[in-house]
Design brief:
There is one protein chain. The protein is of the alpha/beta class. The chain is built from 15 helices and 10 strands.
C-alpha cells in the first residue's frame, strides 16, 4: 500500500466511492503511531502509543473524512461546501475547497473559535460567518441551509465524513498488526469515536484483526452531555474543539461505548492542561487541548486500576497544538530576557 497516497487511493476498496469519484488528495492520512517513551513507563503501561493526527495537511484528523465528503460532493456536481465548526472542520473544508476551486462557507460560533483555526479558514479563502450562539445553534442553521439550497453539508452528520475518518482505525491495525486493547480519544460532536468503531468492526469482519478494542471517550467536564445523559445548553471548556453541548453523533458514540465494553467520562480543564504540558515536555508531542483530554482520562483510569497495565493502548491526538497555542502559553514559563554576554546567560541559566 502506497503510504504517500491519500486516503481515497489507499483505502478505495473500503470507501463508498466509484470510478467516477475524483481521487482528490492533499496527502492526508498515514499519520504516525508514536510509541510512548516516558508517559507509558511512568504509568506502568507496557505498550502505549499516540496516534498523532496533527500531522494531517490542515493539522487535524478532520482531513480524513473531509476528502471523501468533498470528492463525493464533486461527483454529484455540487460546487459549494458548507459547515458549522469550532475550528478544525472549517479549516479542513476550506483547504479542500481551495484545492479543487470550490466555494466554502463556514459558520462558526462567535467568539468560540481559536484564532489560529479561524485564520486557516480565512487564508484558504472561505467565506466565514460568525453566528451568535454556540456550535449547536450553528449546526442547526447550516443543516437548514443545506436542506433548502444546492450546497453540500460537510459536517460529520454527512456519512461520507464518517467513512473517511474510519481509515484511522485501519492504519492503527495496519501498524500494530492487530487492534489495541484500548482506543482512547476525545469526544465532542462524537463523529470520530463513531468512525473508529466502524473501522475496527469492518476490519474484524474481514479478518484483518483478531480483537476489537474497548472504546474510551473523554469529554470536558463543562461540555459532557453524553456523560451526564442530557444536552448542555451552554458548554464551556478550554478545549474548544469539544465544546459541544448536543453531539450530532450521540447515538454512534454510545453504541461504540456499549458494544465495545468501553466508557465515556469527563475530565476537568485543569487535568486537560496538565496532560498537555506533560505530553509536550516528556514526549515531544504538542497537541491541542481537546487532544489531551483522553490522556488526562487515561491517567485517571490507570490510577484507579480500570486499565490493565499489560494492555496495548492507543491515545488519539486529534489536532496539533499549533491550532490553539494561546491555551498552552498561559501555563508555561515566559522567555528569559537578558542584556549581556554568554557568561551572563550561563549565570542566569545556572549552567
Amino acid at each position: 500500500m502506497n503510504a504517500a497516497a491519500g486516503v481515497i487511493d489507499r483505502y478505495r476498496d473500503w470507501l463508498p466511492v466509484t470510478e467516477a469519484t475524483p481521487a482528490i488528495t492533499l496527502q492526508e492520512g498515514s499519520t504516525p503511531l508514536v510509541p510512548s517513551r516516558n508517559i507509558g513507563p511512568s504509568l506502568g503501561l507496557r505498550r502505549l502509543y499516540f496516534k498523532y493526527e496533527g500531522l494531517n495537511p490542515t493539522g487535524s484528523f478532520k482531513d480524513r473524512g473531509m476528502v471523501v465528503a468533498v470528492a463525493r460532493a464533486m461527483e454529484e456536481g455540487v460546487r459549494v461546501l458548507v459547515c458549522a465548526s469550532t475550528g478544525n472542520t472549517s479549516a479542513s473544508a476550506a483547504a479542500y475547497a481551495a484545492s479543487q476551486r470550490l466555494r466554502a462557507i463556514v459558520v462558526v460560533p462567535a467568539g468560540k473559535i481559536a484564532m489560529n483555526k479561524l485564520s486557516q479558514a480565512l487564508m484558504y479563502g472561505a467565506k466565514v460567518v460568525a453566528l451568535r450562539g454556540n456550535f449547536d445553534a450553528a449546526l442547526e442553521t447550516v443543516r437548514e441551509l443545506a436542506s433548502q439550497y444546492p450546497v453540500a453539508l460537510v459536517n460529520s452528520v454527512n456519512p461520507d465524513r464518517i467513512q473517511g475518518q474510519k481509515t484511522a482505525a485501519f492504519e492503527v491495525v495496519d501498524t500494530l498488526g492487530d487492534a489495541p486493547d484500548y482506543l482512547v480519544l476525545p469526544v465532542g460532536n462524537a463523529g470520530n469515536i463513531t468512525a473508529y468503531w466502524k473501522g475496527f468492526k469492518e476490519y474484524r469482519a474481514a479478518g484483518r484483526c483478531s480483537v476489537l478494542p474497548r472504546m474510551v471517550g473523554a469529554q470536558a467536564e463543562g461540555a459532557a452531555p453524553i456523560v451526564t445523559g442530557r444536552p448542555v445548553a451552554a458548554p464551556k471548556t478550554v478545549a474548544s474543539a469539544i465544546e459541544i453541548g448536543n453531539p450530532a453523533s450521540w447515538e454512534g458514540a454510545t453504541t461504540a461505548r456499549d458494544e465495545s465494553g468501553g466508557l465515556i467520562d469527563a475530565v476537568t480543564d485543569t487535568e486537560i492542561l496538565q496532560a498537555q504540558i506533560r505530553l509536550a515536555s516528556t514526549e515531544g508531542l504538542f497537541a491541542e487541548p481537546a487532544s489531551c483530554a483522553p490522556l488526562a482520562l487515561l491517567v485517571r483510569l490507570v490510577r484507579d486500576g480500570r486499565v490493565q497495565r499489560d494492555s496495548t493502548t492507543v491515545v488519539v491526538l486529534t489536532g496539533s497544538g499549533l491550532k490553539d497555542p494561546d491555551a498552552a502559553l498561559g501555563n508555561v514559563e515566559p522567555p528569559i530576557e537578558l542584556d549581556g554576554d554568554a557568561r551572563a546567560m550561563a549565570k542566569a541559566l545556572k549552567l
